[in-house]
């Protein structure tokens, strides 16, 4: 399996300018919304509560000749960004778009694309409409296997099982919100969702730290990646979230998530040294800083009462 490094030009692959210019992304993604209406992360949600409560499921747009993947630079869609950075040829066969290409999160056009009004969503060349980050990642990895330099599947059955377990812990107990209605939160939201009630924030913070300890226990000591010496789906999924949290450590209620977790710290340092990984983290950091910088700084331990 090749792990050759790529130039910064390769890292950008072929994402639209809205992802390369974060200021442009911030303004385009919020079309029709004031800054106070914008919600992001976990399930990549943005929009007004009344719009999110709609139960109308629109038929998908007509299929195109290429697969289309609609993303924003948050941590769950970040796995697709990272997988594409590790596999530059995907830029030749997939059209990467943002909600701005469909009128913004609040528009009727985007509702036709995404039944949950969430990102990411994929419109396949065969006419399927797929959502949920891991479903889309699995589809892309399967369909374009001959083009991949890093298939991220893991070299052994044990490595693949451990990778799948780490992905499951992340998606269910760290980043996941299993309700798309307003005022339901994921554990990771403790540091940026000002509306979260204090007792819930305290409980979710406790559980988030527990899950990070569990991740620490599951990482193989020898590294340098999650399950050994090859990049796996666990790395692709965990990295955008861990890097996002650590990048906000100075201002965040959670603080440094690598402190007291030496394997996680070593793994993160190794991934950060790879420009393909760090390039994705920098896009996510810019997005967080743009939309939630004040919220992150404003949530303190006093909010856990």
TrEMBL record:
Identify the stretch(es) annotated as Disordered: 40-63
Matching Gene3D superfamilies: 1.20.1050.10, Glutaredoxin (3.40.30.10)
Which Pfam families does the protein's record reference? Answer: GST_C_2
Indicate the segments forming the GST C-terminal domain, all copies: 156-292
Q: Which PANTHER family match?
A: GLUTATHIONE S-TRANSFERASE GSTA (PTHR44051:SF8), GLUTATHIONE S-TRANSFERASE-RELATED (PTHR44051)
Give the protein's recorded name.
GST C-terminal domain-containing protein
Q: Which organism is it from?
A: Emiliania huxleyi
